[in-house]
Amino acid sequence: MKIFKKLIVLLFLLVLYLYVANITLMPKNIIIMQGENLSVSTLWGVNIKQIATTNPNLGQYDSNKLGIEQVSGGIDQDKQSGTIDLDVNILDTIPLKNIKVSVIPKTTVIPLGNSIGMKLYTKGVLVVGMSEIEGTKPYENSGIEEGDRIVQINDTEITCTEDLVQTVNNSNGNQLKIKYIKDENETTMVANMTPAKTKQDEYKLGLWVRDAAAGVGTVTFYQPSTGRFASLGHGITDVDTGGLVKIAKGELVTANILSIVKGKNGTPGELRGTIDGGDKLGEVYNNTSFGIFGKLSSTNKLDISSQNEMEVLSRDKVKTGKAQIICEIENGNRKYYDIEIKRVYTNNNSDNKSMLIKVTDSELLEKTGGIVQGMSGSPIIQDGKFVGAVTHVLVNDPTTGYGVFADLMLKEMAS
Q1: Does 383 participate in catalysis according to the annotation?
Q2: Tag placement on the chain: N or C end, fewer CB within 10 Å?
Q3: Which of 63, 211, 231, 234 does the annotation list as catalytic?
Q4: How confident is the model over 276-291, as a mean pLDDT?
Q5: 225 is catalytic
Q6: What totals of helices (H) and strands (E) does the chain contain, helices first?
Q7: Higher pLDDT, 247 or 203
Q8: CATH code of 176's domain
Q9: Residue 279 appears among annotated catalytic residues
């Protein structure tokens, strides 16, 4: 009898866990494209209903079915956009959370493929290491770790490494109140630290920090209706912490390709370039897992032509078979190269590995060995429509890699 009761309790706890996990994992904000149906995973008794909309022509979202399923609503009007508020509840009586759905309009873009450079400046300064100062550890027990960002010391805002060095050195060894942000959950915290004096009569915290990151990649597309651009198909991560660089601002600049390191099995290749002396092309405002986004201020040097404007193909219409990528592996020579889309992961919204692709173009294989670092962001074209961008290469097979769906980049750009 006791075993039976324990089993009942365990079963109840398991069911409770499944419900809590299901509700917790439902996002508070969802972005979908016009023509895309909204699907939300629900459990028995968990209902979703529409409570408000900014556009009555969007249609109605109605979920009255029970059971474990993908519940689809009616937000699939081809020519409507706006927002819809959904209420998540149990048995239509107990409210649990609200979901805001933003429907963004269909759009056309101009695929690019130019090699570009980026300069990103962090929000505050990023802690990338720690070391003793004259045998002491000022940071010990402070709670500050690698990957955290220092944004303020006492009443001084910290925007760059120079701000931190000067503020700490001017402290004369007095205790400092340091405001910092935990990278994993963006929680703002406060610590007190007393700087240590060096043999050079300077004061330091024992923290190694960085305030900027830079790199070379490929710009994916330009959106004429907004003046915005997308690039890379993945984010720029810090080489020391491995996390996405949280940026305050950034710049898109021209790049100069210096050489190509051909990819081999087990060793990824590389487009080696420089951004020194590069001309500014625009502002970067977001660094995300699905790409770098910003707004162009100059289009001339990217050779943007309205004649190349094309429709964005929805993921359900992307098929296996022949396609092309656009990339620049020689300065001023942007070209189409043949690839094959081997697999399409239509239901994948969690990362930027939406398609498995293979380079088949003999010229590109001869010059690069396949996909190399620096080609990330190269637009993928199928049947004259934009379908996504190159994101990764398989280390053990440089001819093969992944691409991200176009809609994921567009949604991230609009968020």
Answers
A1: no
A2: N
A3: 234
A4: 88
A5: no
A6: 4, 28
A7: 203
A8: 2.30.42.10
A9: no
